[in-house]
Write a structure and sequence with these properties.
By secondary structure, the chain is α+β, with helices and mostly antiparallel strands. The protein is 35% helix and 11% strand.
């Protein structure tokens, strides 16, 4: 396959940045999208040019670091996959592909396609911890009865990998799907009840302080989420927040 790549290049957070064209050839349809970028970077290095900086780690759809905006969609044209799981068979010979970083105030660009997502880390840290009874009368977590429906919903929420696709696809750059997933995975389990009030209040407060926008319920976040996190979690977080506000 012969392709034309239009890639956002930005030296650092203070650089204006611009789209640069790169022709690539000999791309196999069986390559992953990141492998295709590896081919381009190898060519750039051999020419003595600076390679395109992009985030990646496990390349198995788990780490959430391969945050690329491809042809106007988070993680590209396919649904419920990350950029590393996208294969070049999704494109045609001669295609032009636009590759950009996430666009959000709370995700400032570090270089090229890499953005700073430590705002997500700070939100999770604001959620605190889970209390564990270490008095000597501890109860095994597996011995605590939990309704299967709640266990399943908690597990579904816990599959969030914090990639930021929800933020990138939201017209308001809202992080509510991410935050609601982190709130829900504990709100549905008995182990998460002790700090439930402080957790939701602190996480929502931190989310607002980071500069994320508000939710308008358009549903773009759920559509583009590689793990299919449901909007139901946002409704649950709103209920948790309202109840916590009255308690506070």
């Amino acid at each position: 396959m012969n392709l034309t790549l239009k890639i956002w290049r930005q030296k650092d957070a203070n650089d204006k940045g611009k789209i640069v064209d790169y022709p690539v050839s000999g791309i196999s349809p069986d390559m992953s999208f990141l492998e295709m970028l590896d081919v381009l970077n190898q060519e750039l290095i051999e020419k003595g040019e600076s390679p395109v900086a992009f985030d990646h780690d496990c390349r198995e759809g788990i780490c959430g670091t391969c945050s690329l905006y491809i042809n106007g969609r988070a993680h590209g044209p396919a649904t419920k996959i990350t950029a590393c799981q996208l294969h070049m068979r999704s494109f045609k010979d001669g295609d032009t592909i636009y590759i950009e970083p996430w666009r959000a105030k709370a995700f400032p660009v570090i270089k090229d396609l890499i953005v700073d997502r430590t705002s997500f880390d700070r939100i999770q840290q604001a959620g605190g911890f889970i209390s564990v009874n270490t008095s000597g009368n501890t109860q095994d977590a597996n011995a605590i009865p939990i309704e299967k429906e709640n266990a399943d919903k908690a597990f579904d929420a816990a599959t969030c990998i914090g990639c930021g696709a929800c933020v990138a696809s939201c017209k308001n750059s809202s992080a509510m799907l991410f935050v609601s997933a982190k709130v829900s995975q504990f709100a549905l389990l008995p182990q998460g009840q002790v700090e439930a009030t402080d957790r939701v209040l602190n996480m929502v407060k931190q989310m607002d302080e980071e500069g994320f926008g508000n939710c308008t319920n358009t549903g773009a976040c759920e559509v583009e989420c590689p793990k299919g996190i449901s909007l139901e979690n946002i409704a649950r977080m709103n209920r948790e927040y309202l109840a916590a506000s009255f308690k506070g």
